[in-house]
Amino acid sequence: MTAGATVGDTIWYDINRNGVIDSGEPGLADITVTLLNGDGVVVATTVTNSSGVYLFAQLPPGTYTIVVDTSTLPSFWTQSFDPDGVLDARTTVTLRSGEVNLDQDFGFAEPAVLPPPPITTTTSTTTPITTPIAPPVTSPPGITPDTGGNFGSTLGIALLILVAGVGLVATARRRRTAG
Ligand SMILES: [Ca+2]
Ligand SMILES: [Ca+2]
Predict the structure, then answer these.
(1) Radius of gyration of the chain (CA)
(2) Which CATH superfamily is domain 5-109 in?
(3) pLDDT digit string (tens) for 70-114?
(4) Which of 21, 26, 66, 89 is the most exposed place for a label (fewest CB within 10 A)?
(5) Gap from CA of 81 to ligand 2 centroid (Å)
(6) How far is the centre of ligand 1, averaged over its atoms, from the C-alpha of 82 (Å)?
(7) What is the Å distance from ligand 2's center to 74 Cα?
(8) pLDDT at 41 exceeding the cut of 90
């Protein structure tokens, strides 16, 4: 019969992100922690208590991996400290018979630069999106600044006026002739 080993024990809010549990930095409660054995099989799962403490006890000696379920952290929080130095929210330890290893602490905090808030679509018309307006093209009066279609329609209107004018003149001539 070998004495059971214990591993833990703190997941904390590393407010100043220096990797050290400073006074005033609280533990993170209700964070899910999973323990895998050397074969990667889940041995146990627990959650941190109100002080951010987790413990796995009565373990046979061997190699274990502690995995912090980051989905149970506040949104957008990132890791500031990992026992093995690699910020992947997991660490592997080898426990001797009866060993008590309470140095497997993980620090998390908000990112130094917060991500932009999620874009929310709004139907409000009180704050319309203003798009930059190109300055108007100034041109001498009487000249159409645009080309193409506008010119064509202008030409069409001019032709209509011309035809109407010819018609009026012809009508007038006919009236004079008749009178
Ligand atoms: Ca700290
Ligand atoms: Ca790690």
Answers:
(1) 40
(2) Immunoglobulins (2.60.40.10)
(3) 999 999 999 999 999 999 999 999 999 999 999 999 999 998 766
(4) 26
(5) 9
(6) 13
(7) 19
(8) yes
Cα separation, 15 vs 20, in Å, equals 10
Check: CB of residue 79 under 8 Å from CB of residue 108: yes
Amino acid identity at 134? A
| Contact present, 8 and 52 (Cβ < 8 Å) | no
Closest CA to 105 of 72, 84, 74, 83: 83
Residue tagged 């941190």 (tokens):
48
pTM of the model: 0.63
State pLDDT tens for residues 118-172: 787 766 556 556 666 666 666 566 655 555 555 556 666 667 777 777 777 666 6
CA of 18 to the centre of ligand 1 (A): 5
**Ligand 2 geometric centre to CA of 78 (Å):** 13
Ligand 1 centre and the CA of 139: distance in Å?
66
Q: Is the pLDDT of residue 2 over 90?
A: no
36 by DSSP, 3-state: which?
Answer: strand
Q: Please give the Cα distance from 156 to 152 (Å, whole number).
A: 6
